[in-house]
Amino acid sequence: MGTTFSVVLYGDRPDRMEEAANAAFAEVQRLDQLLSVHRPASVWSEINRCAGQRPVRVLPEVFQLISQCLRYSRRSQGTFDITVGPLLKTWGFSTGTKRLPSREEVAAALAKVGYRHLRLDPAGRTVQFDVAGMEIDPGGIGKGYAVDRMVGILRKKGIATALVMASSSSIYGLGAPPDEPRGWRIDLRHPQQPRRHSAAEVFLKDLSLSTSGGYAQTFCADGRVFSHLMDPRTGYPAPGMLLVSVTAPRTIDSEAWAKPFFIQGRSWAAKNKPKRLNAFFCEDGPEKAWGWLS
C-alpha cells in the first residue's frame, strides 16, 4: 500500500508474540493484494480498469469497505471521496510528477470525480462507475483498515499490549506499556519544524490516531505551496490548514475523518464530528488556533 507497517509488542511469551506479529504482517500482505493501486493484479486495480465499462463483482470484504467509504462521503458532505484518483494524477501526486495543472486540466479531472457516480449493487455485489475515466483511490482509508485488521489478529492471538503503525499517519495503541499507564505516548509532529519540535502529545490506550498533514507531500509553483490533500469539490488542494490529527476507537474512522476535518476546518468539525472522536488542529497563519477541539 505504499507505506511501512510496524508492530511493537509487550509480553512474557516471545514465541507467542512472534507468532502473533507474523500473523498480523501476513494479514497486511493479504490486504495489499486486494487494495493496493501499486499492484496491477489487485482487486482495486481491476475495479479501476473495468468498472467504467461493466459492473465488477468483488469479494464481500471489498464491497463492504467501499460501502463504508460512501457512508463517510455522505456524512462529510463529499470531502471524503475515494474517487479522487483522477485529481491526484492530474496534479502528479500519484505519479511522482508533481506540477501545477491548468484550470482546464483540473476541470477535466474534476468531471471524473464524485462519489455519487459510484454505483454499488448489493444483490450482485458489484461496483460500477457511471462516468468513464473514474478511479477510486484507497489512500484515505486503506491503511486505517489494515491497522484495525492487524489489531484484531493480535487480540485473537492473546496479545494485550501492542502498538501498530502504518508509517506515522495511522496508529493504534492496544493496552498500555508497562511504564506508562496512560497509554502509548505519541508526539504529533510540528508541521513547520517536524524534526525539531512536536505540536502536542497524545496517549493511546485502546485508541487510534491518524494524521493528515499539508506538509507531508508538497511542491512549490508560482510562489505558492501546494499539498496532496485535495478538496474533491473544487479540484484544488485544501487551503488554510497545516495538520489535523484525529483520535477514535477505530483506525478506519480516525483516518477517514482526518481528511474532511482538514478540508472543512475546526468549526465544521466541532459541529459535525461523530461521537467518541476528537481532533487536534494546526491552522495556517500566525493568528490561527492550534489545539484540541473543546
Tally of strands = 16
* CATH class annotation of the domain at 169-292: Alpha Beta
How are the strands of the largest sheet arranged?
1-5-6-9-14-15-16
Give the topology string: H per helix, E per strand: EHHEHHHEEHEEEEEEEEEEHHEE
Poorly predicted parts:
none
User: In one word, what is the shape?
Assistant: globular
Number of helices: 8
Largest sheet: 7 strands, antiparallel
From the 3D structure, determine the CATH topology of the domain at 169-292.
T-fold
Query: What gap, in angstroms, lies between the N and C termini?
Result: 34 Å
Question: Which structural class should the secondary elements be placed in?
Answer: alpha+beta
CATH superfamily of the domain at 169-292: ApbE-like domains
**What fraction of residues sit in β-strands?**
25-35%
Work out the helicity level: 25-40%
Mean pLDDT: 93
Radius of gyration: 19 Å
What's the architecture of the domain at 169-292 in CATH terms? Answer: Roll
Give a structural overview.
There is one protein chain. By secondary structure, this protein is of the alpha+beta class. β10 and β11 form a beta hairpin. It has a domain at 169-292: T-fold (Roll). The strands form 5 sheets. The chain has a 7-stranded antiparallel beta sheet, covered by helices on one side. The protein contains 8 helices and 16 strands. The mean pLDDT is 93. It is 33% helix and 25% strand.
